[in-house]
Design brief:
The complex is a heterodimer of chains A (492) and B (327).
Chain A lengths: L1 H12 L23 H10 L2 H17 L3 E4 L6 E4 L2 E8 L1 H25 L4 H4 L5 H5 L21 E2 L2 E4 L5 E5 L8 H14 L1 H6 L8 H11 L10 E4 L8 H11 L2 E3 L4 E4 L2 E6 L2 E4 L2 E4 L22 H6 L4 E3 L10 H4 L2 H9 L11 E2 L3 H9 L4 E5 L8 E3 L5 H13 L4 E5 L5 E6 L2 E10 L2 E3 L3 E3 L4 E5 L13 E8 L7
Parallel strand pairs in A: 3-23, 7-8, 7-12, 12-13
Antiparallel strand pairs in A: 1-2, 4-20, 5-6, 9-10, 10-11, 14-17, 15-16, 15-17, 18-19, 19-22, 20-21, 22-23
Helix pairs in contact in A: 1-2, 4-13
Chain B lengths: L2 H31 L9 H11 L11 H6 L8 H14 L6 H16 L7 H23 L4 H21 L11 H11 L3 H8 L5 H10 L7 H16 L9 H15 L1 H8 L1 H24 L10 H13 L6
The chains are: A alpha+beta (492), B mainly alpha (327).
């Protein structure tokens, strides 16, 4: 049996090397497959190069024609690109996923309790678990909103934490995206593309559904409406069609059957939010906003913002409209706050973190700072308030000038930076010119919290397509894969 | 419906109709010109009349006139640009229309972009593909859009643009040398897909009276100005729920007045005013209707709508990119 497998898939994997990385699909260099991967490898090995080529082309064309694109602004013009897609799915066995699921729920609960706490009593600060100055100096801390009561005390309704696996295969949290995480539309489109292109493979496997996400999202939005009526008006607020994630905005609005609005569609009157329709004004209850805090209200935040709604914050404070996610959640995904999440879990829930953090050195701690400056060459340095792969330095890969630049920045503003050891992210077989090669991957699962918490089984697996690269961001040469969480098998 | 959505539906439809009409005109004109007198040959003479007719004004660019009309980046009303704007409008509201409508427009745009700029046949390809795609788009629209306000605003853009363009097409002879004016009547019938209808009604002979009567005053031919205005009138009443013959806003009043004019006093008026001045007066009224629609349904948003489409798009792009750094 084992030999037959090897013989069949040999052309596909003959030059495959795991190179001491943790490989998602293979146990070791003998290319013995991990749980769930055998049938998939055999399926792809059976396809002729011509069939494979044709499948890839039709996938690409479909993405392009449907406008499943993101926009790159490198040339100042804005070019629409498709998010490169690798057809080899990432497969997660049921039991492995159960741990992730539980870990994410635990983390989400603690983060929401943390936010509710720091915007009210501040117990965790008083008891010195999380340093008060760290919270209050966070760029995204909004002291003005302390004491504002929001439905179910839920601040982060939609979270897309990034998970990685280290060299032992342990899942760790790399960062929590608690502001406006994106990528969920790719998770859904990737799934429908895989089902369309490789129905035979899909049929063989027993994969958990992800397609219910939009429905769950709508339920979440409705559950936090301030007006308790049967049919609250929920809208999605987009910066507009030239935003890089615009496809996702229209996709989600359409799937949920809610209006997609721009700032100029809304108006605030008497502390209530209305949208301009061809039949007059209609009151809005819940805004799923894909616009950062800073741009939401020109009277309150950046006055130059043309994307927001004047006086939206007055309506929000008065409790007449719910924002999803809430104002001020950025303090929870400040990369320095991140280091304290395991402590939060212990403090609020009395539990150990199920999904561990990456070891993190904080610029604001004296010993850590010293360590960072002495070992800059071996560390990843990150600005605490940036996301999307911006504002970071990968020490070993950087030039001397870049390192000097970051050293100066860290010295200048220690609170603004953290450092982590370079993690050798796990790798996953990925199609490169017809054969499989290992490429680094991460995983962004999506967690919804309204009245209750829903974890979608799967997520967006991002893959660094450049050989050796650790950067999975779409803006920097990343692609994605479908992620298959296997259902509990019937006989176990 | 959101005012901005209505606006985008309307402009998506208008921009596509504009591209389609210009494509038709270019193809028809080119073919009729082959029979024209020598005096008309040469870029300036060949294409300048179309520029006049479509009110694109004088080209200040170095491009030849055909390029300027078909594929210019500088001319915001070129076929290529109109398709671009239609596609941008559709992108803004793709959740509101049938998926296939968006895919058709998006595919058209992607395919037009891919045509090799040095291809000698490029302009013809652009015109033919635009025409073809527009037919498919309208077909999907007809068979899949629910008859709600979405449909009404799409149709409103379609008929308003078509009424305007047909009235302009009829004006073509005015811009041609006298001896070639006759060829213009063939051009305009072809561009309006009216050749067959004309034959059925009037036999083989094409003349000014018959052709203009068909294109301006037919109550049954779907590209005639009168037919289009009748549709505009109906659609406006559908949107507001006002009874036919009555009016609730200026757009409805203007449309009703123009329809009455076309219904009852057409041919005599032409005699008095001359064809050129007559169609000119119709265009003024159509513009007025367009303006009133904007006032009534779109301008509810404080943010000014695109009077200068290009500058508007650029400024929105810059603003929206400010927030695109998130993960």
């Amino acid at each position: 049996m084992e030999d037959a497998y090897k013989k069949g898939v040999k052309p596909l994997i003959q030059s495959y090397e795991t190179e001491s990385f943790f490989d998602e699909a293979f146990l070791d260099d003998s290319c013995q497959p991990r749980e769930g991967y055998g049938p998939t490898l055999e399926f792809f090995a059976d396809l002729s190069p011509g069939q494979m080529q044709a499948s890839l082309r039709s996938l690409e064309r479909a993405f392009l024609k449907q406008g499943v694109t993101f926009t790159v602004y490198s040339d100042g013009q804005g070019t629409e690109r498709i998010f490169p897609f690798d057809p080899f799915p990432r497969i997660i066995p049921h039991d492995e996923w159960s741990v992730i699921d539980e870990g994410l729920r635990q983390r989400m609960k603690a983060l929401n309790m943390f936010l509710a706490d720091i915007y009210s009593e501040g117990r965790i600060l008083k008891e010195g678990i999380v340093p008060e100055y760290l919270v209050k100096t966070s760029k995204h801390y909004r002291s003005e909103f302390a004491g504002v009561k929001i439905p179910h005390d839920t601040y982060i309704h939609i979270c897309g934490s990034d998970l990685i696996r280290d060299h032992t295969g342990q899942y760790c949290v790399l960062e929590d995206n608690g502001r406006c995480p994106s990528g969920v539309s790719y998770m859904l489109e990737n799934r429908s593309a895989m089902k369309r292109t490789f129905p035979d493979l899909f049929r063989q496997m027993n994969v958990e559904k992800v397609g219910t996400y939009p429905k769950e999202l709508l339920n979440t939005l409705r559950s936090v409406s301030p007006r308790q009526q049967d049919d609250p008006v929920c809208v999605l607020l987009t910066p507009g069609q030239y935003n890089s994630a615009y496809f996702e905005h229209t996709f989600l609005a359409q799937q949920m059957g809610i209006e997609i609005v721009e700032g100029r569609d809304l108006v605030v009157d008497n502390e209530r939010v209305y949208m301009h329709t061809t039949r007059g004004l209609v009151q809005v209850d819940v805004i799923y906003r894909r616009v950062d805090d800073d741009f939401l209200d020109p009277h309150f935040f950046r006055p130059d913002s043309t994307l927001g709604v004047a006086d939206l914050m007055r309506a929000y404070r008065a409790g007449n409209v719910t924002l999803v996610n809430a104002i001020g959640t950025g303090v929870a995904d400040d990369k320095a706050t991140y280091a304290y999440v395991p402590d939060m879990i212990k403090f609020y829930l009395g539990e150990e973190a199920i999904l561990p953090n990456i070891q993190t050195f904080l610029g604001n701690k004296e010993d850590d700072l010293k360590y960072i400056l002495e070992n800059l060459d071996d560390l990843v340095i990150k600005a605490v308030d940036e996301a999307g792969g911006y504002g970071m330095l990968i020490g070993p890969a950087a030039s001397k000038e870049e390192r000097d630049e970051f050293r100066a920045k860290v010295k200048d503003n220690p609170r603004g930076y953290i450092a982590q050891p370079v993690i050798s992210l796990s790798r996953h077989p990925t199609f490169c010119d017809g054969t499989l090669e290992g490429r680094h991957v991460d995983l962004r699962p999506f967690v919804l919290t309204g009245k209750k918490t829903v974890v979608t089984p799967g997520g967006l697996t991002r893959v660094a397509l450049r050989k050796g690269s650790l950067v999975v961001n779409s803006s920097q040469g990343g692609g994605s894969k479908d992620t298959w969480v296997l259902k509990k098998s019937k006989n176990s | 419906m959101l005012s901005r959505v209505a606006e985008n539906l309307y402009w998506m439809s208008r921009n596509l109709e504009r591209a389609d009409n210009l494509s038709r005109l270019v193809i028809a004109h080119q073919s009729e010109l082959l029979d024209a007198t020598a005096s008309l040959k040469g870029d300036q003479y060949e294409w300048h009349p179309l520029l006049e007719v479509t009110a694109m004004g004088d080209s200040e660019s170095d491009e030849d006139l055909l390029t300027y009309m078909v594929s210019s980046e500088e001319n915001t009303q070129s076929i290529l640009k109109s398709v671009f704007f239609a596609r941008e409008n559709a992108r803004a509201i793709r959740d509101q229309i049938a998926e296939e409508m968006w895919i058709e427009l998006n595919s058209l745009w992607l395919e037009l972009k891919q045509i090799d700029p040095t291809d000698w046949n490029r302009h013809k390809l652009i015109c033919e593909m635009t025409q073809q795609s527009s037919l498919i788009f309208r077909g999907i629209e007809y068979s899949s859009l629910p008859r709600t306000d979405v449909w009404a605003f799409v149709q409103l853009g379609e008929y308003l643009e078509r009424a305007d363009k047909t009235s302009r097409i009829v004006d073509l002879p005015h811009f041609l040398p006298k001896k070639d004016a006759a060829s213009a009547w063939n051009t305009m019938l072809r561009a309006s897909s009216a050749t067959a209808e004309h034959r059925q009604r009037y036999g083989g002979e094409v003349n000014a009276a018959n052709a203009s009567s068909l294109l301006l005053f037919s109550s049954t031919f779907p590209r005639s100005v009168r037919y289009c205005v009748k549709k505009i009138d109906e659609l406006l009443h559908f949107i507001s729920g006002t009874a036919p013959g009555d009016y609730l806003n200026e757009a409805e009043r203007e449309a009703g007045a123009l329809l009455a004019r076309l219904n009852f006093s057409g041919v005599e008026e032409i005699g008095e005013m001359g064809l050129h001045d007559y169609v000119d007066s119709i265009q003024v009224e159509l513009n007025q209707i367009g303006w009133e629609i904007m006032q009534r349904y779109f301008l509810l948003c404080r943010d000014a709508p695109p009077s200068n489409a290009e500058a508007y798009v650029t400024s929105r792009m810059q603003a929206q990119q400010q927030v695109q750094k998130q993960g």
